[in-house]
Protein 1
Amino acid sequence: MFNLSRYFSTLSLALILVAGGVLGYFYYSLSVAQLVAMAEDRNVAMTQVFRNTLWPRYGEFLRREGARDAGSLRNAPETARLHAEVTAQMRDTEVVKAKVYNRAGLTVYSSDARQIGEDKGANAGFRRALGGHAASELTHRNSFDAFEGALSDLDLISSYVPIRGEGGAIEGVFELYQDVTPFLAYLRQTLWWIAGGVLAILGLLYLAQFAVVRRAHAILDRQESELQDANRDLDARVRLRTRELEEANRSLEGEVAERRAAESRLDHLARHDPLTGLPNRFAFDEKLDAAIRRAEQGGGQLAVLFIDLDRFKAINDSLGHAVGDELLRLAAGRLARQMQPADVVARPGGDEFVCLVEGVHGIPETQAIVAEMLAQFGPPFLVGDNDLMLSATVGASLFPGDGRTVDALVRNAETAMYRAKAAGPNASRFYEPEMTAYATERLRLERQLRRSIVEGGLRLDYQPQVDGPTGRLIGAEALARWTCEELGPVSPARFIPIAEETGIIVDLGEWVLREACRQLAAWDLEGFRLPKVSVNVSVRQVERPDILDRVGAILAETGLTADRLELEITESVIMAVDETLSVLEKLRRMGIRLAVDDFGTGYSSLSYLKMLPIGRVKIDRAFVAGIGRSPGDEAIIRTVVTLARSLGLELIAEGVETPAQAEFLAHAGCVALQGYLHGRPLPAGAFRESWATRDAA
Ligand code: C2E
Ligand code: MG
Ligand code: MG
């Protein structure tokens, strides 16, 4: 750091010395100048005295003698007299020598006689005096010849003063030497004192300043070190704070990233189905909306496919939700795999999927896509240990023909899907405007059906079940018949699916069960004894936790014994193994017989039958219809018969229309028959009439 005190001391010392020197010099010069001026004034006064007293008497002589030689001038008696008078006049004054020059510069008188005759015409002082002005100078002489004799070490002021005559003209020059040695000695002494005093004061000032500067320097030093400390401290703090901020920043970044991840998870959850990871209905609608706008601008077509898994509910109910969930995931995977990246497969809920296919060109192309989609479901799905067969039903709508909005397109695709459902599993339909009418009609049917159950618009037909070889009546199947107030008779193929979908089937089924049991008990009382009645039971009914109570209550209510009731369950019920198994078991223990309806059309593996408390297998009429025409169907019938026998199950074939079919079945080993060959379903009265006599016969 800049050393303040050192620089200050050096500089101020130098300045003080210079100032002291300059001050001293000026003081001395001024004093000398004053001294000279004073001496000159005195010399001028002395000259005036000389001029007034001696010049009138000796002036003439001196002017005149100027032309003579020096020796004679020196020895002249006037010179001796003049000398005596001058010496007397100068006594007790400071004047130590006096000289007189004539206008030519010749020394005409000198108190030192040896100098008489000397020429001073070239002297500057003389020339100046000749010009009318006095001129003085201070000189120092080591030795000097004064009036009193030889003197040594003298400080002298010599003045050349003009001597003016009466008219004021300059007639000569007077030179006086004044001894100022004591003055000068005194002057020098005071100068030393003053210089000493000034130096002492300046020295004190210097010391005071030095002390102040030292102190300031120390303060500055301390402040600097404090500043450095503070700086270091600040540095450390800044570093620490920076680290803290960096850490905070890092953790903030972490938080931000976490929040972003959470937000994107949330967004994903909000827009995706958590089970399959596919977009949900909301996201699908958005994408469809965007696609519609694109198609509107580009003039393209797009297809909305509504996909519903067949029998999924049965699988879910029978094998459990874990299996159901896995199956949905696998199905979603297959659907997604088949689609193009630009297409969207979404799961709005349940066992339904919707699919958006952009850039299609008409129905044939879309049909191919749908066929491909259905084919995806060909290979079985492996879930745990189960090899599950699954199919789907697809309904399709096209933009712009089948609708120009998200709602219209999805609704119409769904309508088409329901229509396809009616055509059986693994089917597809394209939307047609009349389907909307159908859907509307469905709604009407549903309302009417509910009313009919309450108001008694339903009745039962009975179709005989016969022992082939003897033609004896062994039982009858009760089949629901409904005549709608507005639409007239409606086939079960139409209203049963609606009842199943809407849940109406539970009440409907209970009514059928009660009515069939009541009818049998009534016939008993009338003396017409039908050995037993078969009642169709929907999976929805079996699902109900109070099924056993309801059946028990109906039997108790009607007084029919359990062994005369057979419940026909489809394979979808059989698939509901988990919980339904115990229900079926209990029904069987109650004495009720169980039959598998439409056997062979579903997907249940034959091995299931072993586990189930089944009494009878009902060969579906589709196989019976194939007798004589389809070796495959015939083979199936033989296999089913063999299997049922090996399992100790009874058999019955339905849909037997011809004697040939009856004969084939008898040959194969199935003797119980149901079909138009032995009788169409008939109302109770007609049935009894038809069979009371025949049975009697
Ligand atoms: P399903 O249980 O297989 O009933 C047999 C169906 O085959 C009846 O049709 C019957 O009329 C018909 N059928 C009988 N013999 C022949 C024949 O020789 N040839 C032909 N082509 N068909 C014959 P329906 O009455 O129209 O019933 C259709 C289905 O509706 C039934 O099939 C059954 O699954 C369901 N269903 C009917 N009533 C009820 C009911 O009360 N409850 C439940 N859950 N389902 C019912
Ligand atoms: Mg049936
Ligand atoms: Mg059947």
Protein 2
Amino acid sequence: MTRKTVAVFPGDDASPEVMHPTVELLEKLHLPIDFVYPMVGNEALAAHGSRFPETSKAQVDEADATFFGSTSGQSTEALFYLRWGKQTYANVRPCQFRPGYRSPMANPENIDFVVVRENLEDLYLGLEGDLTDLAGLNLYSKHAKTSLKDMGAGRYAIKVITEVGSERVIRFAFELARERGGMRKVTLTSKYNMLAKADGYFREIGFEVAKDYPDIAFETFIVDDFLCRMITNPCALDVVVMPNLYGDIMSDGAAGLIGGLGLAPSGCYGADYAYFESAHGTAPDIQGQNIINPTATVLSASMMLSYLGFHDAANTIEAGISSLYAAGQCIPVDQGGIAKTNEFFQALDGALGLT
Ligand code: ATP
């Protein structure tokens, strides 16, 4: 197998506490992967005059994938480059229950769906400002029966739903539904009643794309109805696709169904690049306590191994995680156990025969 290169950003606050041991775990698997650490943040600013210098960008470009630890600022520029620079338009967030997870649901056993969140547009383009910026447009609200300029001081944020951006992420969801070979169903959600122009467009494109996949069932729900269904009947879901903001919110909710953010992996895919990071943030409130749950990060690494073609290793890691939780002997604190972060990694080494 050809050697691969992975760019690693350990991240901020509690992130390095799970990122470094996860890379060590991957190294112990003796896969043909070289890990490089592009310089970011204040260190890069001091050395190169930029928080994400050209040399670091080149390392990302030359790598086959990036393994990204959550950031509270130091690597934000790198993250923006990984998203918009590398056009990673599909954020894939699996929500799969494993026995031993502390799910709040009565019957979580068959929860196994994937949220595909559009990753580049919607309200995340940074097009925000003061209402006075829009005064010249003479915008009139038919709902509020008032001109925007008569609403007094305020701010705005622009929501953008494009044809290209919607089509490619919805197609990605259909392809994933085929590949998973599960229920073979795509569920699309957005606020297409109230936001008929923008979110309605996302849904219209969904129906168009669905015509190319007669073997995959397709359904749509308004996002508030969808949330209720996701909570009351999550086992009816297979692949779910939605615009950026809803995906951000719903995927954290989905993580809650199986036991919380500590369990939720994520991968962001473009046409020719992908990066992988846990769905959770930097968990600043538990930094330095050796209690951050590594599961989300380790499972993100496993998604990365699959992307790089190391399917056996990915399956081995997933089986190792499942066996630890099923045995119930080394359960992290957020799942109701007493295992410290380093103890979980030691137990995982043991489960994988790496000690
Ligand atoms: P950020 O601004 O980086 O997103 P945040 O605190 O707003 O940080 P998260 O980092 O996602 O958001 O954390 C939300 C809550 O979930 C925190 O209480 C955090 O400790 C907890 N949490 C997140 N990830 C984990 C984890 N892997 N293990 C245990 N608890 C976690």
